[in-house]
Design brief:
With 462 residues, this protein is of the alpha+beta class. The protein folds into three domains: 2-71 and 155-340, BirA Bifunctional Protein, domain 2; 81-145; 365-457, Anticodon-binding domain (Rossmann fold). The protein contains 14 helices and 23 strands. Strands 3-9-10-16-13-12-11 form a seven-stranded mixed β-sheet, with helices on both faces. It has a five-stranded mixed β-sheet with strand order 20-19-21-22-23, with helices on both faces. Strand 22 (431-436) and strand 23 (442-446) form a beta hairpin. It is globular. Bound molecules: glycyl-adenosine-5'-phosphate. The site of glycyl-adenosine-5'-phosphate has 19 residues, from strand 10, strand 13, strand 16 and helix 10.
């Protein structure tokens, strides 16, 4: 299934390996025509439920680069790392915590001493091997920083801890830095949230799972600021909102589950992941995290910047640093999840049909318009008129290439929910055949009703 999804994603212009003509660049991907359309639809679906339908959440688009002190205050410079081991024979690089996990030892957020002690135990039992070549000659684990550095405004040779700037490893840093401006300009009452979607960068040690774990990716995060006593209630509320979001966009309830973090960072009181059962990756894996972070982030930024980040409660006249809970999801990971869930191969009249049974609201192309015959100018003219009208409101394609069956198959593969054929009856009575992707049923529909039907009744609108 993994190979099928990877090759499908490239063949149908969803995801390309980056820099391919130069031999590629590990764990970096580009998004083709249908990929960017799908990605934008997922992002808009997230934004709709996190901002548009909420009166208590504001939007933000903060910069990738921030004052480097941001990441000292957040603890990333000191300890945002993974334990790395190398194979002395084939030079493969591995994540030691993943190897331990495969043997049932949870090493998330453990010290390097703990990791090495557990690796030694596995070695003694003859269970520690290179995952690439099977050699037992492995290095000790060492800390590998995930921070990506740049030399913005300073010459490359002068890159040092003093003048380094970082590409943000998570988007929420910008939300904490803009909290003061948001409070001063939008005057929110507690609780309120700030949401943003944008690029993040991590120097991942191993990234072999297509777009699941990459070095450049997009996150969609929402930080919810509140009184500490409201945390429990709001945490449960957001858990429910996020769970329902997956169902709303067609992910079956039995393909997702909650995974509770047993080991928490010192400032957190609760953390859960939404895990999706990836057929292409062989099981349940994290797509989203929901974390109760206390007042740690704002307290640290207040301390490191010297700026008062207290919130003044107008009713009680109390001043305090709000507590934060966050929802944090990877957009690229969601795209993989939706492809994984929708990719279907089935047999129709003895022939194989590949169809992307993706939620209609997320489908990259909502409708495709075909003239029955390419060489009949009156059919082509009418088809172009219908196409021009629909594309004002939704992504629509025009196709007059090959027979109708082939055109249906091409649209099925990219998940287009509706195909519209203009035939000779159209010229008589202004109706078209409207063909449904999933049932493959066709119905005659008046041209004047098409747009409304597709957008409202048939659920193509995000
Ligand atoms: N602010 C909290 C935070 O960043 P995280 O668990 O490190 O938490 C949140 O990341 C989400 O971001 C993950 O659940 C995942 O969907 C996505 N993500 C993290 N690292 C990623 C990577 N290297 N490639 C793609 N997505 C990633």
């Amino acid at each position: 299934m993994y190979d099928k999804i990877v090759s499908f994603a490239k063949r149908r212009a969803f995801v390309y390996p980056s820099s391919e003509i130069y031999g590629g660049l590990s764990a970096i991907y580009d998004y083709g025509h249908y990929g960017i359309l799908l990605k934008d639809n997922i992002k808009n679906a997230w934004w709709k439920h996190m901002v548009q339908l909420r009166e208590d959440v504001y939007g933000l688009d903060s910069a990738v680069f921030m004052n480097p002190k941001t990441w000292v205050a957040s603890g990333h410079v000191e300890s945002f790392d993974d334990p790395q081991i190398d194979c002395k024979k084939c030079k493969a690089r591995m994540r030691a915590d993943h190897i331990l996990e495969e043997h049932g030892i949870m090493a998330d957020r453990e010290t390097i001493e703990f990791v090495n002690q557990k690796l030694d135990e596995l070695k003694e039992q003859g269970k520690l091997k290179c995952s690439a070549c099977g050699s037992t000659e492995l290095t000790k684990a060492k800390r590998f920083s995930l921070m990506v550095k740049s030399n913005l405004g300073s010459p490359t040779e002068a890159l040092s801890e003093k003048n380094v700037v970082y590409l943000r490893p998570e988007t929420c840093g910008g939300i904490y830095l803009e909290y003061k401006n948001i409070v001063a300009t939008l005057h929110p009452k507690l609780p309120f949230g700030v949401a943003q979607a944008g690029k993040a960068f991590r120097n991942e040690i191993v990234a072999r799972q297509f777009i699941f774990r990459t070095r450049e990716f997009e996150q969609m995060e929402m930080q919810y600021f509140q009184k500490p006593e409201d945390m429990k209630k709001n945490y449960e509320m957001w858990k429910e909102i996020r769970w329902n979001w997956y169902l709303e966009y067609g992910i079956p309830a039995d393909k997702i589950r909650w995974a509770k973090h047993e080991k928490l960072v010192h400032y957190a009181s609760e953390a859960h992941d939404v895990e999706y059962n990836f057929a292409s990756l062989g099981g349940f894996k994290e797509v989203e995290g929901i974390h109760a972070r206390g007042n740690w982030d704002l307290t640290r930024h207040s301390k490191f910047s010297g700026v008062d980040l207290n919130f003044l409660d107008e009713e009680t006249k109390e001043r305090f640093i709000p507590h934060i809970m966050e929802t944090s999801v990877g957009l690229n990971r969601l795209l993989l999840m939706f492809l994984d869930n929708a990719y279907t191969e089935e047999e129709v009249n003895g022939e194989k049909r590949t169809v992307l049974k993706i939620d209609k609201k997320l489908a990259p192309i909502k409708a495709a318009v075909f003239p029955l015959l390419k060489n009949k100018p009156e059919l082509v003219k009418k088809a172009r008129e219908v196409y021009e009208d629909l594309r004002q409101n939704m992504m629509t394609e025009f196709d007059d290439n090959g027979n109708i069956g082939k055109r249906y198959r091409r649209q099925d593969e990219i998940g287009t929910p509706y195909c519209i054929t203009i035939d000779f009856d159209t010229l008589e009575n202004d109706t078209v055949t409207l063909r449904d992707r999933d049932s493959m049923n066709q119905e005659r529909t008046p041209v004047k009703d098409l747009k409304k039907k597709l957008l409202k009744e048939y659920g193509c609108e995000i």
